[in-house]
């Protein structure tokens, strides 16, 4: 038998070593990681706020995301009680143009009620994560990266933290 807290602490150290993050946490899947990460951005270390989620009254309860990065898994983010604030115009995906979201749109959408920025990583994600992270961090807002489908390549284990992500969620599948 093993003490789960000891196992989680050891796992955290191993994940941090592999990713360059401060710590790591094993969840039942990427969706669970998105939920837990969003909840942490909303509540911080306030145990009373944690206990009352998904009631976010009086807490930052908006997550900014590019419209073109929305997918079925953003339900895991919304489960924490937040509202998604969409930015951008995904005409690149429709073939009507070359535009998606721009850093200035993230900046304009971030306000006092913003808990986090969600960035869904993919080969075609725009704007670059580093640009989004710079805007978010200038406003004091953390960046959650949904990188569930971004392994392989192995380099991605460190890439998103290096580009400014505060929390990265991978799938073990």
Summary keywords:
8 helices; 5-stranded parallel β-sheet; alpha/beta; 173 residues; 14% strand
Q: Specify Rg, calculated over alpha carbons.
A: 16 Å
Whole-number average pLDDT? 94
State the helicity in percent bands.
25-40%
**Stretches with pLDDT under 50, minimum 5 residues:** none
Spatial order of strands in the largest sheet: 2-1-3-4-5
The run of helices and strands is HHHEHEHHEHEHE
Question: How many helical elements?
Answer: 8
The rounded distance between the terminal residues' Cα atoms is 26 Å
Number of strands: 5
Sheet having the most strands: 5 strands, parallel
Q: How much strand?
A: 5-15%
Structural class: alpha/beta
Shape, please? globular
Folded structure, characterized:
There is one protein chain. This protein is α/β, with parallel strands linked by helices. Helices cover 40% and strands 14% of the residues. The protein is built from eight helices and five strands. It has helices spanning 4-19, 30-43, 47-52, 74-78, 91-94, 103-109, 129-138, 156-162; strands spanning 62-66, 83-87, 114-120, 143-146, 167-169. Strands 2-1-3-4-5 form a five-stranded parallel beta sheet, sandwiched between helices. Helix 4 (74-78) links the parallel strand 1 and strand 2 (83-87). Helix 6 runs parallel beside helix 7.
